[in-house]
Amino acid sequence: MGFNDQTSDLYIADPYHGLYVVGPTYGKATLLAIEAEVVPFKLLNAVDDDQETGIVYFTDASSRFQRREFQSAIQVGDITGRLMKYDPITKQVTVLLRDLGLANGVAVSKDGSFILVGVQNLDIGSRRYSGTEAYIHMAKQALGPATNNFGSILGPESLAFDVKGEGPYTGVSDGRVLKYQGPDVGFTDFALTSPHRTKEMCDGSIDPSLEATCGRPLGLGFNYQTGDLYMVDAYLGLMVVGSRGGIAIQLAAAAQGIPFRFLAGLDVDQGNGMVYFTEASNRFQLRDIQELIASNDSTGRLLRYDPRSREVRVLLGGLSVAVGVAISRDGTFVLVAELTANRIRRFWLGGPRVNTSEVFMELLGNPGNIKRNERGDFWVAINNALGPPAPPESLVIPLGLRLSDDGRVLEVAPLVGAYEISEISEVQELNGELYVASLVAAYASIYRAN
Question: Structure pTM?
Answer without folding.
Answer: 0.73
